[in-house]
């Protein structure tokens, strides 16, 4: 009886608290200064515009709102709560430049933590914890360090190319390509046509292999084997298609309801696997570093700090000591004890890198290949530029000492055999060469502009009150009283959406052809676009930050750019990608943007492209031996393609 009474009281109390919070939200909403901004009417009182927002990548929603309400407006969330959205470069610079005063809202951090990043990883922590972690992680992402990892990128790109070529050749020779041992069950081979390959799945495997080796010295071997338990565990946690569900929206405002989420046994098991392997990796790296240090001391280097160049040089000879996790652990060990990361924090970085460093790059490369398949002229021009790099490299270096050189059309190992040794100075030289290839650079900039893997991010005002400034040269906005304003009043708890993709594609900033894939635009980007406060290339693809106010920009952007360029070089040089013109590709966002075929939603995320061995034209053969790098490339006249999805 007493138990029943207690349960009833608890239920009544919970209901009262629930309604009290609900009333508070309604009151907050009625008094919000954001109510005075223009914006689209909410189709639903309960969930505002959230359902439309969920599918915005395919409907051009934000561009339509921007055209109708200007660059700064509000849309509605749960129970009509105003959320500020702006494509105004000055407003975005203010919010990103004061990142610690505009943290990620709790519900975003919770969903990132659940996705893979954990609650103590750099993607989810805020304030001083973030500053401390970022400082320790920074050396692992320096340009010179990432360059030392490039042999891994070359190996994996070449291994992928060989798998795809063996598939294309088997098909050309009349064999049933689906029987190729290394082919996952995702090809659709039609007689007479080049084989259709789901490039998304292959790129996901290759980039997982890269982050495994470069990130932690861990071999997933995903290109040749899909049985690795860590890869499986990660796949479960970072699960695929996301439907619009109302429960997480309500949980965002009533966090205690999250306790009632059903326990998913597969997920629990996957998290336990990630933790077990992560702890083993940390332990292994730490012991290796301690042994290295002991060996260095024994050689008379004991007075040097663990990060001194001499010791770095000594360690650099071992691939095992070069991965990001090793550098992070070394940097952690040499920090002041009070500033070090705990084991739990280091563990969270492993899953963060897996999530942030693999799906994003697979998505970028997939969309880039798609754009190139839809525009054969750009693809041909890129191939010609890349073959020019190869020719120029051959003419400048007569011998490549490694048993495997990425330059040569066919590597001497088969896709199923173990990867060759990674130590490869040639790989670093060639990386420097392709970094100077102007047309490759334009293609990468353009595809990262048009297909930013992360399309929107969310921030919350942490200041009691603030005025978000807008561009004085811009139009501002007209408030409900008819007055034009150039700043937006916000208060603690107000949500701000940063529409990365919409800014990257804004016609106001990029001109009327903003939605078209046109690498030549990078010869002279429009003046208005130069105001976008992006870390890279006047786009928001990698966001931006400010070391004083908080730097939440992508720490891995140099890693990403080099990996993307190397993969494009290796693949495009030898493989021609085409797409069935009747196929409609749409997007689905689950943290990163993935494609699916509109008529085949039951097949989930995929990007089916046709592949064949690229031929060498006479003019390309004639170019061999000539320097390729010309800072100005005259635009090729071509029919403007249709806007991209
Ligand atoms: C094309 C590839 C990539 C894109 C487009 C990308 C994009 C982004 C974006 C937009 C953010 C900010 C997220 C937010 O605050 O809401 C971010 C943060 C981050 N990225 Fe990347 N990323 C890429 C590759 C990588 C790689 C390769 C790594 C690591 C190996 C990485 C590691 C991180 C980390 C650790 C953060 C959190 C930084 C912080 O909060 O201080 N990313 N990335």
TrEMBL record:
Top-level taxon of origin: Eukaryota
Name any GO cellular component annotation: membrane
List where in the cell it is found.
Membrane
Locations of Low complexity compositional bias?
Answer: 178-189, 390-414
Q: Where is this region: Disordered?
A: 174-193, 390-425, 607-645
**Pathway, per record:** Secondary metabolite biosynthesis; terpenoid biosynthesis
Q: Where along this sequence does the record place binding of heme?
A: 554
- Please name the Gene3D superfamilies in this protein's record: Cytochrome P450 (1.10.630.10)
Q: Which Pfam families match?
A: p450
**Cofactor entry:** heme
- Residue ranges annotated as compositionally biased, kind Polar residues, are 607-617
Q: Which GO terms describe its molecular function?
A: heme binding; iron ion binding; monooxygenase activity; oxidoreductase activity, acting on paired donors, with incorporation or reduction of molecular oxygen
Write the record's keywords in alphabetical order, separated by commas: Heme, Iron, Membrane, Metal-binding, Monooxygenase, Oxidoreductase, Transmembrane, Transmembrane helix
Main location, first listed in the record: membrane
Q: Which family does it belong to?
A: Belongs to the cytochrome P450 family.
Q: What name has this protein been given in UniProt?
A: Cytochrome P450
Organism lineage reads as: Eukaryota, Fungi, Dikarya, Basidiomycota, Agaricomycotina
């Amino acid at each position: 009886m007493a138990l029943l009474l207690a349960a009833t009281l608890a239920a009544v109390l919970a209901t009262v608290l629930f309604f009290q919070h609900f009333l508070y939200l309604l009151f907050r909403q009625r008094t919000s200064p954001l109510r005075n901004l223009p914006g689209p009417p909410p189709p639903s009182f309960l969930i505002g515009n959230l359902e439309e927002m969920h599918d915005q990548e395919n409907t051009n929603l934000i561009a339509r709102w921007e055209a109708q309400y200007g660059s700064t407006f509000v849309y509605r969330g749960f129970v009509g709560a105003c959320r500020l959205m702006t494509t105004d470069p000055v407003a975005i610079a203010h919010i990103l430049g004061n990142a610690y005063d505009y943290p990620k809202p709790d519900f975003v951090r919770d969903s990132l933590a659940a996705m893979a990043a954990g609650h103590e990883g750099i993607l989810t922590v805020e304030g001083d914890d973030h500053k401390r972690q970022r400082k320790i992680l920074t050396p692992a992402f320096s340009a010179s360090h990432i360059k030392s990892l490039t042999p891994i990128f070359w190996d994996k790109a070449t291994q992928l190319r060989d798998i795809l070529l063996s598939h294309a050749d088997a098909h050309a020779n009349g064999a049933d390509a689906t029987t190729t041992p290394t082919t996952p069950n995702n090809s659709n081979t039609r007689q007479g046509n080049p084989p259709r390959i789901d490039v998304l799945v292959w790129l996901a495997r290759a980039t997982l292999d890269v982050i495994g080796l470069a990130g932690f010295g861990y071999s997933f071997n995903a290109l040749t084997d899909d049985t690795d338990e860590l890869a499986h565990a990660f796949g479960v946690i970072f699960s695929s298609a996301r439907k619009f569900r109302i429960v997480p929206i309500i949980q965002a405002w009533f966090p205690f309801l999250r306790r009632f989420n059903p326990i998913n046994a597969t997920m629990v098991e996957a998290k336990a696997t990630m933790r077990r392997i992560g702890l083993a990796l940390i332990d292994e790296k730490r012991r290796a570093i301690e042994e290295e240090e002991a060996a260095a001391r024994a050689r008379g280097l004991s007075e040097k700090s663990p990060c001194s160049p001499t010791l770095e040089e000594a360690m650099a000879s071992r691939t095992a000591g070069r991965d990001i996790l090793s550098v992070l652990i070394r940097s952690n060990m040499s920090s002041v004890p009070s500033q070090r990361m705990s084991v739990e924090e280091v563990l969270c970085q492993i899953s963060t890198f897996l999530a942030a460093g693999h799906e994003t790059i697979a998505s970028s490369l997939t969309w880039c290949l798609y754009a190139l398949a839809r525009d054969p002229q750009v693809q041909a021009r890129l191939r010609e530029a890349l073959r020019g790099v190869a020719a120029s490299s051959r003419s400048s270096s007569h011998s490549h000492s490694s048993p495997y050189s990425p330059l040569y059309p066919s590597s001497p190992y088969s896709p199923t055999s173990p990867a060759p040794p990674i130590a490869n100075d040639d790989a670093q030289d060639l990386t420097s060469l392709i970094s100077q290839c102007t047309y490759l650079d334009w293609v990468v900039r353009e595809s990262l502009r048009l297909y930013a893997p992360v399309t929107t991010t969310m921030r919350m005002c942490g200041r009691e009150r603030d005025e978000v400034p807008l561009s004085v040269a811009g139009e501002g906005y007209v408030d409900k009283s008819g007055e034009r304003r150039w700043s937006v009043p916000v208060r603690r708890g107000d949500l701000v959406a940063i529409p990365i993709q919409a800014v990257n594609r804004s016609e106001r900033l990029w001109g009327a052809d903003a939605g078209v894939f046109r690498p030549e635009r990078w010869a002279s980007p429009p003046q208005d676009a130069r105001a976008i406060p992006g870390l890279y290339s006047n786009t928001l693809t990698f966001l931006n930050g400010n070391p004083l106010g908080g730097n939440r920009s992508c720490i891995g952007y140099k890693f990403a750019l080099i990996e993307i360029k190397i993969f494009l070089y290796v693949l495009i040089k030898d493989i021609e990608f085409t797409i069935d013109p009747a196929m409609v590709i749409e997007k689905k966002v689950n943290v990163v943007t993935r494609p699916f075929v509109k008529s085949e939603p039951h097949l989930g995320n995929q990007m089916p492209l046709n592949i064949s061995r690229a031929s060498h034209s006479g003019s390309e053969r004639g170019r061999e031996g000539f320097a390729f790098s010309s800072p100005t490339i005259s635009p090729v006249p071509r029919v403007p393609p249709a806007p991209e999805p």
